[in-house]
């Protein structure tokens, strides 16, 4: 970036296939770079130390409830969507879900994920080819998030996936969206709200064994309002699906591009959990987030006033040469052994650390493990990949492979 009014290079659609050189150039320029986003002056946070400090500091939050955020975010006005909330509201909503997403609780879903993946691999092996998105990561995420957690009938899942993609695209800053993107975001949000409103009402009358039924029970107990349950369901749909689908897709792509690492995982399948961490560092499904100073503070030698905004470039921080060695190399042993690398920011840090991280890990481990165990060689079946238009959520539309 050469000026505060220029488009940040990593946000340029032309750089979508590989934004990481642009991130490197930004890190070289400095840890905090002035930027004009949605006509509002903010700073891009490029390096690990400053990103980690902001993500873990109580002085930084979102500021919507206090009316001090410079960022326009329609999601902040959705009841129950706690991802853009600050304490104490954030803790109230997150606390209702924490028990469901504890590693021990999510581990019970491991056999379910493994069984689904084995069935998908049976189909792929019979066909002799596989789209790792449409044939693996998407149906697995749909079964786990839409099916197991939200209880969405299978026939409705393609419609919810289309809405979810439009909403995910709409989470990008407004000045990076077209008018069509904004209109699609509104239409999808309205469709989801109406759909989940009816589904929540049904769960109140006829509860099942899914998470949505547990949340609906909170309405009768006076703990939650119907609109809040709808907002939580919408958040789980978008955040849970995008993270899982793109984590698997980005990981499979990394293994295709580094066949020696795929062979190593076949020889040492115990490294698969460490490989998931390396995918999160190397090509994170969530590239950046936003924060607002809740009080006057200082980061990286720069003073910030209450209400100042920053864009935390987590994908840049996870390739910071000051913290990681061989930053552009995909190494599945990086997070293995007694001396693993520094914690990546692929799932964020602090108060807003990804709630669904344990479930996303289980899904990715099941996919990588089965794909490598049941094949001897993988090849990319296309010479050109199309990435999703979203900049916050990084992933490809299709990933055809042969084996």
Automatic annotation (TrEMBL):
Keyword list, A-Z: Heme, Iron, Metal-binding, Monooxygenase, Oxidoreductase
CDD domains the record matches: CYP164-like
UniProt-listed SUPFAM superfamilies: Cytochrome P450
Domain of life, per lineage: Bacteria
InterPro entries for the chain: Cyt_P450, Cyt_P450_B, Cyt_P450_CS, Cyt_P450_sf
Family: Belongs to the cytochrome P450 family.
Name of the featured protein: Cytochrome P450
Species: Pseudonocardia ailaonensis
């Amino acid at each position: 970036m050469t000026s505060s009014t220029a488009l940040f290079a990593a946000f340029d659609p032309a750089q979508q296939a590989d934004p990481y050189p642009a991130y490197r150039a930004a890190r070289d320029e400095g840890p905090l770079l002035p930027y004009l986003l949605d006509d509002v002056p903010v700073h891009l946070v490029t390096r690990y130390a400053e990103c980690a400090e902001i993500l873990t500091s109580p002085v930084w939050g979102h500021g919507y409830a206090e009316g001090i955020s410079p960022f326009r975010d329609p999601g902040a006005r959705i009841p129950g969507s706690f991802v853009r909330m600050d304490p104490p509201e954030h803790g109230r909503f997150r606390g209702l879900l924490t028990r469901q997403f504890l590693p021990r609780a999510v581990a019970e879903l491991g056999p379910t994920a493994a069984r689904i993946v084995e069935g998908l691999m049976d189909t792929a092996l019979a066909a002799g080819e596989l789209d790792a998105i449409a044939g693996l990561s998407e149906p697995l995420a749909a079964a786990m998030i839409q099916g197991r957690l939200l209880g969405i009938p299978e026939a409705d899942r393609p419609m919810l996936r289309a809405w979810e993609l439009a909403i995910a695209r709409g989470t990008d800053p407004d000045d990076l969206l077209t008018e069509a993107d904004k209109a699609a975001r509104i239409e999808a949000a309205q469709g989801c709200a109406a759909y989940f409103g009816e589904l929540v009402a049904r769960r109140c009358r006829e509860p099942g064994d899914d998470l949505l039924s547990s949340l609906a029970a909170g309405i009768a107990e006076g703990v939650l309002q119907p609109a809040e349950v709808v907002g939580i369901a919408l958040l789980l749909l978008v955040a849970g699906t995008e993270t899982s689908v793109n984590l698997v897709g980005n990981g499979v792509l990394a293994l295709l591009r580094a066949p020696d690492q795929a062979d190593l995982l076949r020889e040492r399948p115990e490294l698969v959990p460490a490989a998931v961490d390396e995918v999160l560092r190397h090509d994170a499904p969530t590239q950046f987030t936003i924060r607002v100073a809740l009080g006057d503070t200082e980061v990286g030698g720069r003073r910030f006033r209450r209400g100042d905004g920053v864009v935390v470039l987590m994908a840049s921080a996870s390739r910071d040469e000051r913290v990681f060695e061989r930053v552009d190399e995909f190494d599945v042993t990086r997070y293995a052994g007694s001396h693993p690398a520094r914690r990546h920011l692929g799932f964020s840090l602090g108060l807003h650390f990804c709630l669904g991280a344990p479930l996303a890990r289980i899904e990715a481990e099941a996919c990588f493990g089965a794909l490598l165990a049941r094949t001897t060689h993988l090849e990319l079946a296309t010479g050109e990949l199309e990435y999703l238009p979203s900049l916050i959520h990084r992933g490809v539309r299709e990933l055809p492979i042969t084996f």
